[in-house]
Amino acid sequence: TSRVGGFALSVWCFMACADAVPGAVGEAVVPAGVGLGQKPPVYLRAGQVMRLGIDGLGEQRQRTVAAV
């Protein structure tokens, strides 16, 4: 993937507009293979589960719901 500025710029931009508190985790890097970049585009559907985990910190899960 190609990003302008790289990781350091991403962290700077995040810190410039967000309060960082102990334990906060920011996720700002999105790979080119996400749904919008697919041909045809692929999007999350109601009932699907997203998981994000970091070794030693734990895991979080979110279940998608239908738009209202």
What features would you describe in this structure?
With 68 residues, the chain is α+β, with helices and mostly antiparallel strands. It is 18% helix and 18% strand. It has one helix at 6-17; strands spanning 49-54, 58-63. A two-stranded antiparallel ribbon has the order 1-2. The radius of gyration is 15 Å and the shape is extended. The mean pLDDT is 77.
Following the backbone from N to C, one meets helices and strands in this order, namely HEE
Mean pLDDT: 77
Strand order of the largest sheet: 1-2
The shape is extended
Proportion of beta-strand residues: 15-25%
Query: What is the subunit organization of this protein?
Result: single chain
According to DSSP, the number of beta strands is 2
Q: Mind summarizing the main beta sheet?
A: 2 strands, antiparallel
Q: How many DSSP H or I helices?
A: 1
Helix and strand composition category: alpha+beta
Q: What is the end-to-end distance?
A: 34 Å
Radius of gyration: 15 Å
Low-confidence stretches: none
Helix share, percent: 10-25%
